[in-house]
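Folded chain entry
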Amino acid sequence: MTSAIMAISLDTPKTSDGKAGVLAGITAYSIWGIFPIYFVLTRVVPATEMVAHRVLWSVPFGLLIILFRKQLPEVFDALKKPKTVALLGLAAIALAINWGVYIWAIQQDQIFQGSLGYYINPLIYVLVGVVFFKEKLSRLQSLSIILALIGVMILTVYGGVFPVISLFLAASFTTYGVIRKQVIIKAMPGLFIETVLMVIPAIMFMTWLSNTGQLQFAEHGTQISLLLVLAGPITVLPLLAFAFAARRMTLSTLGILQYIGPTLQFGCGLYFGETFTLAHALCFGFIWVGIIIYSYDALQKHRRTKIT
C-alpha cells in the first residue's frame, strides 16, 4: 500500500540485511493486506471519523517512534522549509482522501475493488511517468497496461460494474506518491509531519461530531474504543517495517513483495463472502497476467542495470 515511498535510494543489501529486509517487507505488506478485517470490525464508525482517528492516534504513536529513532532533528529541519511543508500538506490531503475512500469501500462490501485498486496502482505509476515525465514505455510495459485495460473493460461491459473505486484509489495513491517523490525526507518523519498537518482539522471535525451528537467513539463499548485507539499503531507500524525493508532490499524484490497486500485483501473479500462473478474472475485474470509481465520486465531491467 505504499509504493510511493519506493523512491528511497537503495544500496545493494548484505545477505543478512537482505533476509531481515524481506521479513520486514512481508510483515508490512501482510498488515496492509489484512486491513479489511480491521475496517469490517469497526464498520459501525463512519469512514470520515475513521480517517480522523487514524490521524489523531498516529501523532502520539508516531512521536514515540520519532523519538526512539532520534529523528526529531529531521522533522524540525523539514518544518523550516516552506516548500517541503507545502508539498507534505498536499501529500497529506491525497493520503486522507485515499484512506477515506478505501475505508468506505470496505464498509460497503467492496473489498474486491479495493484489492483491484492496489493491483493496478504500479501500472498507473507507469502511465503517469509517460504522460507527465515523458518516460518511454517498454514493449512489456505497454502489454501489461493493455492487459489491465482489457480487464477493466471486461468488468465494466460484461460485468456491468465500472471500477470507479479501484481507479480512484490507484489515482489518489499515485498522486500521493508523485508528490512525495518531490520531497527529500525519510518515510517516518514524512508521515509524522503529514499527520501533524492533518491533526488540527481531525480534532475540529471530531469536536463538531461530538457537539452534534454524531461522534461514535465510546458509543459502542470498550472493544470498539480500543480498536479505534489502535488505528495509530496499525497505521504507523507497517510503514516503519516498510522503511526498514526498503533500506535493506533491492527495488525489484520490494516491487514483487508489494503484491502481498492486494492478494491478501482479495482473500479477505472471498472470506467475507463478497459476490465474485465470472466478470471479476476475467478482470483479475487479465490484470494478474499483466502484473506478472510488468514484474518480469522490472526484474530484467534491474539485472541489466547491475551488470552495467
In short: The chain has one domain: 3-307. Residues 2 and 173 are 8 Å apart (CA to CA). The two ends are 31 Å apart (CA to CA). DSSP finds 14 helices and no strands in the chain.
